[in-house]
Amino acid sequence: MQPSxxxxxxxxxxxxxxxxxxxxxxxxxxxxxxxxxxxxxxHDQAEAVLARKAASAANPSNSVKAAPKHFLxxxxxxxxxxxxxxxxxxxxxxxxxxxxxxxxxxxxxxxxSSKLADSPIPKMLEYLVRNRGSYSxxxxxxxxxxxxxxxxxxxxxxxxxQTIEDLCARYxxxxxxxxxxxxxxxxxFLYLYHACLSFMRGVDLDDEIAGGNGSTHGSALxxxxxxxxxxxxxxxxxxxxxARAEALYMALQDQVQIMTxxxxxxxxxxxxxxxxNARGEPLLASDLIxxxxxxxxxxxxxxxxxxxxKYWSPFDIAGDGKTNGANAYxxxxxxxxxxxxxxxxxxxxxxxxxxxxxxVLTSHVFQSFKGWWQxxxxxxxxxELGRIVRASKHFxxxxxxxxxxxLAEFARLIKSLDVGTVGPVYLALRERLEPDSPxxxxxxxxxxxxxxxxxxxxxxxxxxxxxxxxxxxxxxxGTLEPQDALRQTLLxxxxxxxxxxxxxxxxxxxxxxxAYLTLRPAKxxxxxxxxxxxxxxxxxxxxxxxxxxxxxVEHVMPQSWRNVSSYQVEDSMQHIREAALHxxxxxxxxxxxxxxIVSNGPFVEVDGGTPKLLGKRSQLGQSALLINTYFQQPxxxxxxxxxxxRRSRAMLKAAELVWSRPVEVEATPDKVASALAGY
Length: 679
Description:
- By secondary structure, the protein is an alpha/beta fold.
């Protein structure tokens, strides 16, 4: 077996055909499970190319560190005996789905880049999707030749003259009301075509659609491919950037690697195929790190068994002794942004950023960890393993908060805001500051204020990874106390992508924000819940606030207000009401049992024209949450736009106490509770 390393461009750069044997299954990759994640990897590499180019342009005198290459996997093939008049060929023994998809990507990029004026890319790609020469059979011109089931589709996808509209018409998603399943190969091509165009427009398919209730551009695209005969462009009014197209090509040429394994005469393809496809658990980044660390221990003559038992065994074996081979907690998947990985892998992702103080791709955690480790001199294995264990406990309290302390409540707010990139900053602070110290409380208060204010002001979290890396570097530099280094870095930002919103901007956004729509229920609930927690003090029986899963966001004026006679307004006022409907002033929290009985009726019942304090106001009075004490004021008997605005101002006063900038005013429970109650 002859191994060779190549790239996507290199794989198809020679005049060979990759044939899928008849005994292989047809194309089975789906958009959600395989194609989307593959595109994400390629997208990230292309962005890395752009970032490296920008860094080089900004500092031409300094050498820019080469970005780590991304390994897509392997392709195992065996040569096909040559025949006169036929193209040289290989049968693909393993990796047929990968090789087919990569060729579809090049076909899609050729089609997409043809929309660029005077771009050389379509012609460059022509040599990567078509074998050059004169052959006795037409199919020899195709770089990939599938089993019989996919040959009609592959012919049409190779046709450069065919428009996307023609392709969609040839393979419709529905006939009238009858749904038709487009062939998976066609679905993949359409997805990658639109993905390439989106990248050229600077659009990330994993970004959420404004006002889309959590939907991403990618999920909407998949829905269109599956359900619509015509697949609309993603933000098609944005201009195409040739530089981004070039970066995508360069990523495929230089950054995205593939291992090819060519069988020799004495290799049995069937045995190799069965071995490669045998069932087995793939190695995780944490598995590779464990093997690397303890191999180092063995090389140094360290007591491997003793070190493992003292430091690493809790990651593998549960404390109750019931788990056989793997601690279920650390192997359970946790979501970080758009990715879900085992918790232990996510911990090492955050830990490697903390230690290396460099950006780390989730697909390169082991390589980055190994690179950092090998830079050290006279490294004590026991000390390093001890630091790993201590940091893992801090990571656990961040991703699995428990109790009612401020650390747990900070972690709950972070989870509701969906800001996993703050992990390395949290680890850096926890490593240096005592858990009950005023210094740590200041630091986490500043972080909570920064993240909450930006969320409410509708500012993007896209650059958080790079920004928080700078924060980590400031904390670890040691020139200032950790909490002061954090605050100074947060306050020094001036770019819109990084600023800590001031009171004027925060106040304006709070009053105008349609939180339920723009933040969506989960983030809105987390913010309201944090206000509830901050209002609780010694006067309450407990500072315990129900978990977010047990709370729901309730519209005081119901979303179906048009069906309630007491809420009717003139047509000219309806747009004002709709704007106020989803604002903070009209939103509150209820526990699930109470929410189910709160009606969509009037705020107070009307009896002969005299307000009668029943209805929704009375029902809200049954809530034990302090956030609902506002509605028990004697004067609160009418609920309209003016009343919503008054409550919004009261809540803003509480929010400015809890998330001040910087956190200097002590947000005592009495002050927050009084503000929420409207006093």
